[in-house]
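In this supplementary section we document a worked example of the pipeline. Step one takes a protein sequence of length 334 as its only input; no multiple sequence alignment statistics are reported here. Step two produces a three-dimensional model, which step three serialises into structure tokens for compact storage. The input and output of this example are shown verbatim.
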Amino acid sequence: MRSCYLGFTAALFFTSILCENPRYGDKLNKPTLYPAGTNIFNPTAGLRDGLMANLHPKNGSMDQWGPGWIPQACTAPQSHKDPLKLADTEVWNFHYDDCPTPWIVCYNKKSGYELSTVFDLFGRLPVKSRAYVRTLMILPQETGQAEGYAYTWNQDIVIYGNDIDNFMVYIHETGHALDLGGAYSDDGSWLSSSDDWLTSYDQDKLVVDGYAQTNQIENVAQNHILDSYDVNVPGGFGMLNGGWRDIYHQYATLDRKQKKADDRLVPGGECSKRIPNDEVIPFPSSWTSRVMKEKKRAVGEKPNVDIAPGLERITPVEFDTRELCGRYQASHKH
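The serialised model returned by step three reads:
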């Protein structure tokens, strides 16, 4: 059971969906608001400019970890199984003025993008959404991988290649962390499998785009982009697209949920809760000698990754959007 976002530069053909619950796992059969070949990740859909203009960068700073230590989560992605690639990976803290605990970022220097770009885009997310992301991993494009690829895994966001500078991807993947992390319910249940969401879906004629057709998990994540636009851009989504009525019940339901959850998609305020960080480990022994030779530095003091006193701890949830709803294949690129 797999699900991930493959960038808007890839034409996608999906294999069968393997989720246990057919209602949120099956491919959706409603037509789309945006035509085939256009999804809302694409700048031509018109959402990106409005979101970038109204979700502003957050002030803060970055500092790099000393050598020899890495969050355990950052050793899992495929590109880190090669010691030569791990040697190109740095670990950074992203400090933003709206939260006393930094976010940990594993950044591969060969990703093709400056770390400052990641700091800017991630910081534009409202802090009440950002709180549901644990670790951010920025990696180079893999050989044979579709151009643009990202997924959310145990509330860690992993972004490859061309998607690193696409703000819509950060909103979409954070939408997974919120939905599957139980941010919209008192009992930790998913919005995408709730009766409330499925009833709203049944009332609409359309879904927003071809990627939302994948399944309800991806549909909810795409609606995070829609509702972020609707609540933060003057005039809302209705001013951008005259077909808004045909998808209204879906993004209106998400809006009602996020408002009840303390306006989670709206900037402002400070973080009151965070997910505890993953365990910090030494570079695995098979990698250490090569990594230290590359960096020409001794192992430093183990970083303290405890969340700040006074912050509520969000209970971590184990999930993998690559595995939740089907394995997807990109047949060609354009």
